[in-house]
Design a protein that fits this description.
- The protein has 24 helices and twelve strands.
- The chain has three domains: about 35-310, ABC transporter involved in vitamin B12 uptake, BtuC, CATH 1.10.3470; about 340-420 and about 510-590, P-loop containing nucleotide triphosphate hydrolases (Rossmann fold, 3-Layer(aba) Sandwich); about 430-510, no CATH class.
- Helix 4 crosses helix 10 (about 210-235).
- The protein has about 600 residues and is of the alpha/beta class.
- The structure holds adenosine-5'-triphosphate.
- Adenosine-5'-triphosphate binds near residues 358 and 384.
- Keywords: ATP-binding, Cell membrane, Membrane, Nucleotide-binding, Transmembrane, Transmembrane helix.
Length: about 600
């Protein structure tokens, strides 16, 4: 029987929601103070948060340095104002104009985001800044529509939102809504996929995550939220000119996410509130605001790189016990895998692959059967990992084919999970800042059925997905012997535990084939014994295992078939007892 689900569930959700309920509840009481000045600042914070909530998914979750996000605020502010003023179309009601701005923002969110699919870090950051400049220049030059440098009036809100507190409640409501929808994404297979793309991109690909589709969906959402925030911002300002959308504002949004902490919703929310209030209480220092932001950023990066979220993460400060042993329970695999009806093997035929002048693989053919453990051994540099990478689609061979019934598309690693092929890595590829169970659930990303839209609004199919994937992940963790660590941050685990986490992540895919790249490296003797029992258990469920290993004992104990590579060629292939006494293998690899 699968172990009880120790994570998630109603009380846990309520506990996680409490700080948000408290913050928004307190804000809702603000009108009781009768202080309209603070009401104005709170309204501004709510509008900024609308934008930052979406930007947080891009920067904090996906790790994309979108530093020039003020451009979408500008775009939304002008779109709403122009549509309400009727400068290009007949005048639209404010809410229709806001919705239109949201659509424009979604489109331009993708336009700004597209370079992220090709460019990394600072290069992408520069393109977002470039876009911010373009939007400002267009607003200046397109005088007949935008009023150029003179500007135009922001949209006037209908009653009851025309009064300061009415408008405040509108913005607060939308800010709370933005928190809810972005939090739904963050705590879904899409959110986990985002952090996988950020911190373990090859593992994300091996789990079948399509970076392009994922990022496009998130850029659309963030763009729509930012542009609608722009519409409300224009209304709050009552009059907009291009000068209102400064680089400092862009910096504020970006830093709010950074000081908030990556992979958190609460941290960036608090960051936004702090950064909105800061210039007000430090009004005499207004001219120094950019300087203050820069200092704040430096302090955060140097003194608390995890940001506010890390400060609030009390759970991770509790010490873990040191004498924890990994005790796999292979009996649980039956409820997870059950691939016994499958018969189609993975067949490699005459594979050739070179790196420059080095022939890493030189005409390798081998067949990996379902339900068997196939050992792949050989001296360092003999081509084992490269063979595994060809099967996983990371490398496209110059010659030869890889088939699983149908050909496996070369050079397309994200297609393998869908074909039932999972893998682990020579160095574990784990998201250190995520919990162990979240890491395992990343492996089940493609098993989710709810669409991005269903997830956004937490519709029943999304909730059912979460229950199912969490249940499968807990079973996988119990099968590898780590369920007690499900809620612990993965970067607190020992190396050997991470190896088993990777196996659990591969298992939730219900793989027909599992490829393990040196899973015993760094494990103790007793851990290797337990690993052996686990691998045997996996193959008994019908899953074909390809085991790349240097531990000869492990290979000879559990493999049904062994292929020996040397200098990129198959030196020998056969049963363990044949290989053990094979003369050339003994002299080239095993030693006399
Ligand atoms: N990305 C790469 N670029 C250039 N050369 C590479 C690359 N990957 C592997 N090689 C070369 O290809 C050959 C095979 O490497 P591979 O990593 O497959 O060997 P291996 O049998 O897995 O070795 P080990 O047991 O040390 O992991 C080696 O000569 C290696 O230097």
């Amino acid at each position: 029987m699968a172990p009880a689900d120790k994570t998630g569930g109603g009380p846990a959700v309520l506990r996680a929601a409490l700080p948000f309920i408290a913050l928004f509840g307190l804000a809702a009481l603000l009108p009781l103070t009768g202080n309209e000045y603070w009401g104005l600042i709170a309204t501004r914070a709510a509008i900024y948060w609308m934008l930052v909530a979406g930007l947080n998914l891009i920067v904090g979750y996906a790790g994309q340095l979108a530093i020039g996000y003020v451009s979408l605020l500008t775009l939304g502010a002008y779109t709403t104002s122009v549509l309400v003023a009727g400068n290009v179309t007949p005048p639209l009601p404010v809410f229709a104009a806001l919705a239109a701005a949201g659509c424009v923002g979604a489109v331009f969110g993708v336009v700004i985001g597209l370079p992220a699919l090709r460019l990394r870090t600072f290069y992408f950051a520069m393109t977002t800044l470039g876009f911010a400049t373009i939007v400002t220049q267009v607003a200046l030059a397109w005088q007949s529509v935008t009023g150029g440098g003179i500007g135009l009036s922001g949209p006037e809100m209908p009653a009851p939102f025309d009064k300061a507190w009415g408008f405040f409640y509108l913005c607060l409501g939308i800010a709370a809504f933005s928190t809810w929808i972005t939090s739904n994404i963050a705590h879904s297979r899409f959110g986990r996929a985002l952090i996988a793309v950020r911190d373990a991109d090859v593992a994300a690909e091996a789990s079948g995550i399509s970076k392009a589709r994922l990022l496009i969906a998130v850029f659309m959402l963030a763009g729509a939220l930012a542009a609608m925030a722009g519409g409300l911002f224009a209304s709050l300002q009552t009059y907009i000119t291009p000068d209102a959308f400064t680089f400092e504002l862009s910096l504020l949004f970006f830093i709010a996410v950074l000081i908030g902490g990556r992979g958190s919703i609460l941290g960036p929310l608090i960051g936004t509130i702090v950064l909105t209030i800061l210039p007000e209480i430090a009004a005499p220092l207004a001219a120094w605001s950019t300087f203050l932001y820069a200092v704040l950023l430096l302090v955060i990066v140097l003194a608390m790189p995890g940001g506010i979220a890390a400060l609030l993460d009390f759970k991770s400060r509790k010490p873990l016990t040191f004498d924890r042993a990994i005790k796999p329970r292979p009996a649980l695999l039956a409820s997870l895998l059950d691939r016994r009806d499958e018969r189609t093997p993975v067949v490699l035929t005459d594979i050739v692959l070179s790196f420059g002048g080095v022939r890493a693989i030189d005409g390798v053919s081998l067949t990996i059967e379902t339900g068997k453990v196939h050992g792949l051994i050989g001296p360092n540099g003999s081509g084992k990992t490269t063979t595994l990478n060809v099967i996983s689609g990371y490398y496209a061979p110059e010659k030869g084919s890889v088939t699983l019934g149908q050909p496996l598309e070369p050079g397309a690693p994200e297609t393998r999970a869908g074909r039932g092929i999972a893998r682990t890595f020579q160095t574990p590829r784990i998201v250190g800042e995520a919990s162990v169970i979240d890491n395992v659930m990343i492996g089940a990303t493609i098993q989710g059925q709810a669409t991005f839209m269903e997830t956004l609004f937490s519709l029943p199919r999304h909730r059912a997905d979460e229950r199912r994937l969490r249940g499968a992940a807990m079973t996988a963790l119990a099968a590898v012997g780590l369920e007690a660590l499900a809620d612990v941050r993965a970067d607190r685990l020992q190396h050997s535990e991470l190896r088993f986490v990777e196996i659990a992540r591969a298992l939730v895919l219900r793989p027909a084939f599992l490829m393990l790249d040196e899973p015993a490296a760094g494990l103790s003797v007793s851990e290797i014994e337990r690993l052996a029992a686990l691998i045997k258990g996996i193959s008994r469920q019908g899953t074909g295992v390809l085991l790349v290993e240097h531990h000869a004992d492990l290979i000879f104990d559990i493999c049904d078939h062994v292929t020996v590579l040397n200098l990129g060629r198959v030196l020998a292939a056969g049963t363990p007892s044949e290989i053990r006494v094979h003369k050339e293998v003994v002299s080239a690899y095993l030693g006399g």
